[in-house]
Amino acid sequence: MFKKIDRESSYSVKYDLRIDKFDTEDVIPLWVADMDLASPKCITDRLTNRASHPIYGYTIYPDEYYQSIQHWMKSRFDWHIDRDWIVPCYGVVPSINFAISAYTSEGDSIIVQTPLYPPFVSSIRHKHRVVLDNVLIYKDGKYSIDFDDFAIKAKEAKMFMLCSPHNPTSRAWDEDELEKIIDICIAEDVIILSDEIHSDIVYKKLHHSIGSFEKIQDRCIILNAPSKTFNIAGLNTSYAIIPNRRKRKIYILEQDKSGITNGNPFGIEAIIGAYREGHIWLDNLKLHLQSNIDYVNKTLITNNIPIKSLTTEATFLMWLDCRDMKLSQQEIVEFFVYKARLGLNDGKSFGEAGDGFMRLNIGTSKEILEEAMDRLCKAYEELS
Known about the structure:
Layout: H1 13-16, H2 18-22, E1 28-29, H3 41-51, H4 63-77, E2 86-89, H5 92-103, E3 109-112, H6 119-126, E4 130-133, E5 137-139, E6 142-144, H7 147-154, E7 157-163, H8 175-187, E8 191-195, E9 220-224, H9 227-230, E10 238-241, H10 245-257, H11 265-277, H12 279-302, E11 308-309, E12 317-321, H13 329-339, E13 342-343, E14 345-346, E15 357-361, H14 366-383
Parallel strand pairs: 1-13, 3-4, 3-7, 7-8, 8-9
Antiparallel strand pairs: 2-10, 5-6, 9-10, 11-12, 12-15, 14-15
Helix pairs in contact: 3-11, 4-11, 5-6, 5-10, 7-8, 12-14
């Protein structure tokens, strides 16, 4: 079902920027978080049908757009959201920047949890806010939250930027962890901005949206999109869920300043198709991704490669602990690029807490992944 597809010369960031990213094109690109897998037919059919109409002018968000998001949240997460809560957006990263401007001022402090998707920290700094790093605790191959430190930092913070599920560690936060976060943020009057773009791809656990906890609804903003799930990041269509009317109005005013107010006709068609008809495809995708995760884990163990794969609770991104290789971070990166000829994400790009780690994108075909693991095994044999 999920076959190898040639992405060369398709203006793909992942493939066509290899030489810029790695100084060589001789790598299998397993870095930027999109997949090498075809989007479902329910999306391509709608895009093809829309493309057959030869005018692509300014586009509104129709009722079906809002209804599809409501349907998805209810059917996948048992969370009823009001239509009024939904704010159409261009993308999650721009929305992060709008939210920072909307709810904080220059000099305000914002909590993050590293290792972390880089635009969180860079957006805070670009907006001249202060980063408060509640570094995640790494113990026995699993990450957890340092709640004592979080409570201290919340006393001086205006906002907490939650990544749920977490990128790059792939943690799907437990309900009790979110409850603790919520209680601290309520006590200290901290706004929660939650990036939940990976929420559809959770394996053996359940995703709990921070917005589904009623007691925090007046002080939270949830950002989401079908882009990771259905591999349509290039269509630039996302949305915010903001239950509080006043906070919603403030966000919309800030977003409007950017001039990004029109809908993308293809993005709108894609989200409707995905959220109305994509359930079975997604269930099959998760089986494929879990199989890829299992394959990587088996390969590392069988070949005695001293790289530990953390339990991947969510996302199609595996966080690899390479510290037992006894190499510096630069040497680890060079091993993957020049010896194994694999293009992964450098763990330190996610913060100092990523030193000794690499991020592997397994959202690809089994054929490509098998070739990648063969290269890794041969490179390690030569290193040994």
